[in-house]
Amino acid sequence: MVDGIDNTSKETTSDIATNESLVESKDEKFIASNETGETELGSVEVKAIKEVAGKIPGPGKVIGYGFKSLGMSFKRVLKKPLSLLPALILVIMWLVINILQSSGIDNLAIKTISFLTFADAGTHGGFIGAVGGIIGKGLFAGVVVVFVDLFKHKNKGEKRSFKETIIGSFGVGKDTLWVYLLGIGVAMFFFLFISGGATRISFMGGIATAYLAARAALNCGFLQMFIASFVSKGKEKASPEVAGCVRGLSTGLMASALIGLINVNLVLIILGSILVVGGTVMTILQATGAVKLGKEQAK
Predict the structure, then answer these.
(1) What burial letters (b/e) apply to 129-163, b meaning 16+ CB within 10 Å?
(2) Could you tell me which of 291, 298, 11, 13 has the C-alpha nearest to residue 177?
(3) Which residues contact 98 (CB under 8 A, 6 or more apart)?
(4) Helix H or strand E encompassing 18
(5) Residues 62, 229: contact at Cβ < 8 Å?
(6) 234 vs 148: CA distance, rounded Å
(7) For 73, how many CA atoms within 13 A lie in the half-sphere containing its CB?
(8) What is the largest CA-CA distance in the chain?
(9) In which residue ranges of the chain is pLDDT below 70?
(10) Are the C-beta atoms of 255 and 215 separated by less than 8 Å?
């Protein structure tokens, strides 16, 4: 009887050890696949997730992998704290600018630096504007860190032509036209959110977020996988509409930054509403086969 218990115990212990080794191997695989990605900002490449999951997982698992990547990024930052120096300098600049403006010092030089560094984000639009500004500043700081990292490693990574970069970041095909327009509309409302309605002085925030969206479109980053987890869950490959939507976001954010310079928020609200409603309706009609474009039309 005791021998039976001991054997069972040994088998159980063996099973646990085997499961733990599988989890560890998955984590190692995830880390290895993600090392060449955008992990400095805690983003996750599609390749890294698919290496572990096999197929495109649901939103919950994608978010879980995202947090895991953030944890790995945090550990690397602790080993190389100087990598956060650009973001720290930016935060100090924001504090100094806000203090000077609160003291009544707001000359042309201060206004210019504030404009270029997105320093006024979160100071307009009440509570919602404050939340949007915090998110916007976080994304802006992320872009600064990415640019510094790219400058340090400018000769590394995959090389693309200018044409490939533009098409991969902002291009649209007939098959993905409606989700592309939907992405542009969503981007306009997101820009209004991070700007707190102060669109003219939030120009750099719009450009920075457009760059991040374009980077996600080009590199198949976390944003693409997160959207794919809703529309392509369980599939081997994300549908073309996913990339089309992300490219729409990058185009919409760029357009919003430019339109915002006229400082008439109603233009963004009307355009955004038309594109979101129209894009959503046409995407549904296309999915049901009522409307056909591109390759679908040729069939």
Answers:
(1) beebbebbbebbbbbbbbeeeeeeeeeeeeeeeee
(2) 291
(3) 119, 123
(4) helix 2-34
(5) yes
(6) 37
(7) 20
(8) 87
(9) 1-54, 153-164, 236, 293-299
(10) no
Residue 19 makes CB contacts below 8 A (sequence gap 6+) with none
Tokens of 225: 């996988």
Sort residue 203 into left (φ over 0), alpha (ψ -120 to 50) or beta.
alpha
Nearest Cα to Cα of residue 213 among 181, 167, 250: 250
Phi-psi region at 125: left, alpha or beta (left = phi > 0; alpha = psi -120 to 50)? left
d(CA 22, CA 20): 5
Contact partners, residue 222, CB within 8 Å, separation at least 6: 38, 43, 44, 45, 62, 66, 69, 216
| Segment 31-88, tens digit of pLDDT | 444 443 333 333 444 455 544 445 777 778 878 877 787 777 777 777 777 778 888 9
**Token pair recorded at residue 74:** 């945090």
- Copy the structure tokens of residue 19: 């499961």
SS3 state of residue 45 = coil
CA distances from 160 to 73, 164, 165, 166, 220 (A): 26, 6, 6, 10, 15
